[in-house]
Amino acid sequence: MQVVWVTRWDELAGLAPYWNALARGVPFRSWAWLGGWWRYYGHAQVNGPRRLFALAVYDERQELVGLAPWYLETTRRWGEVVRFLGSGDVCSDYLSILSLPGHEDAVAVALADWLCGDAHVSGGNVWNALLLGGVDADDAVTRCFVARMEEYGSLVYAQPGPNCWRIDLPATWDDYLAGLSKSHRKQVRRLERRLFGAGQATLRTVDEQADLDRGLEILADLHARRRGALGQRALFDDADFAGFHREVAKQLLADRVLRLAWVELDGRPVAAEYQVAGSHAVYAYQSGIDPAALNFEPGRLAMMATLRLVIEDGFRSFDLLRGDEPYKAHWRARPRPSVQFNILPGRGADWLKDRAWIAGWQMSYWLRAGWKRVASLAQAN
Q1: What is the CA radius of gyration of the chain?
Q2: What is the tens place of the pLDDT at every residue in 153-211?
Q3: Contact call for residues 131 and 82 (beta carbons, < 8 A)
Q4: Is the CA virtual torsion 251, 257, 262, 267 positive or negative?
């Protein structure tokens, strides 16, 4: 295996034709998502300047079989830190080291060897920490990479991340409803008859580029209204966040994987859903509702209408992504743990400092877990 260090945008863009074959049908690993993220967030200097730090892995036939979609950021605390493209405010889930099926272990080993082995003199020695978040706890290629890094003496702390929540879907909408609680099933059936069945509520979907701007405008407006009612910041008010999603949504629609829809009540938008289709699952990324329409349960209306469409389109799963909001379990979603791998070199003059950082991360997690348990007990009493 040969590892090539990619540090320039034109080099990264040259991998675009081959990128999605490595992404395993997960939209947050796709070229549209991660390439678009770098165009909008690569200039940011949250801690210090950011530079591309992608590692492309080629086999003996010079075919691309793996890719670590990373960037490098200078920080005061850790020095040069490696993170996944897509990290931060965009909240990309299911990030991973990318590889063709059957090449997972070879790609993981090649990357670790380049970072820690003899090849590190050509570039691998520039990093002080790898902070890889948004990884599914069962992600095999990333775990193999981490294990190989530990063999080289790197210090690793696997920090639990937020759960994602996924609904396993049956073949029909009626079969899905049969799995809900009796009271929830009754609520859904009532809304179907009273609002959708009577024509008062209508689901509108974005199917053409001509409809995209209107769909995004409705989403941003309803998102801002709901966040404002809760005293929270509206994400689309940020120029980079809004620009990134305008660009990526256009590409996702062209690729026929964007599922942007809104519910109208008597012709007025009251709820919007921004979802992205993968190979077998649809991912519910962002939403918005009109707080003035809460009596009509707009969130439930949008959820039931889009979920029914997902089932009718033959998808096997509906993923509600990160966050432990109670409504997710109410719709029969199950948690999928995620993890952040904090990896330090653990060698040389900084060995003691690296050990101290690992101990600090562990203590911080224990303290947070303890406070959460105390708060939970207090609420229970």
Answers
A1: 22
A2: 899 999 999 999 999 999 999 999 999 999 999 999 999 999 999 999 999 999 999 99
A3: yes
A4: positive
pLDDT at 379 over 70: no
- Distance, CA of 339 to CA of 337 (rounded, Å): 7
Rounded alpha-carbon distances, angstroms, from residue 126 to 115, 123, 242, 272: 9, 6, 33, 44
The pLDDT tens digits of the residues spanning 88-105 come to 889 999 999 999 999 999
Classify strands 338-344 and 155-160 as parallel, antiparallel or unpaired. Answer: antiparallel
Q: Which amino acid, 13? A: A
pLDDT (average), residues 353-365: 59
Rounded percentage of the chain residues whose pLDDT exceeds 90: 81
Helices 239-254 and 209-229, axial angle in degrees (round to 10) = 140
Strands (E), 278-374: 281-289, 317-322, 334-336, 338-344
Least Cα distance to 115 among 343, 352, 333 occurs for 343
Of how many residues is the chain composed? Answer: 381
| C-alpha torsion angle, residues 101, 106, 112, 117 (rounded to 10) | -160
Alpha-carbon span 346 to 353, nearest angstrom? 9
Round the average pLDDT of the chain to a whole number and report it. Answer: 89
DSSP string, 187-243: HHHHHIIIIITTTSEEEEE--SHHHHHHHHHHHHHHHHHHHHHTT---GGGSHHHHH
Is pLDDT above 90 for 343? yes
Q: Edge-to-edge, what's the strand order for the sheet holding 281-289?
A: 201-205, 258-265, 268-277, 281-289, 317-322, 164-168, 334-336
Placement of tokens 């830190």 in the chain: 81
Token pair, residue 289, equals 């509702």
3-state secondary structure 140-155: HHHHHHHHHHHHCCCE
